[in-house]
Design goal:
With 151 residues, the chain is mostly beta strands. The chain contains 1 helix and 12 strands, in the order H-E-E-E-E-E-E-E-E-E-E-E-E. 21% of the residues are buried.
Length: 151
Amino acid sequence: MKIDEKAIRKLAGLLEETGLTEIEVAEGEQVLRVAKMPLVSGVPSVAAPPAMASDPTVPQAANTQAPSADIHDHPGAVTSPMVGTAYMAAEPGAAAFVKKGDTIAEGDTLMIIEAMKVMNPIKAHKAGTVTQILVENGQPVEFGDVLMVVE
């Protein structure tokens, strides 16, 4: 495989620009993944995502409880399909898509995840009641993170 230093530098720049920790692109059979892990005392570690100021006009409906280990197995767990930034409303100052206790229908928009400047709506996979919201507006999320629970 020919190493394209220019492509690696461009992807590394995107990591810095977006605050992501990993990015992967594929073209045909070639795959290029760039990831960053901060070093602490010479030992790789996983750093907490940088604190991001959220819009104070958007209600903060996050559950302050840490999710239990089995929350991923909950049938109503809504997980992040990508790495990005979670937004609870369509725009700053707008009402949140959902809040704890809301009754929702299958297909309703629950939140938006911004990834590489693209806004991706996260839809409800079933009807029910929002019982937990585990992310805050403006919070970075990783692939597979549980965002909320619908029962």
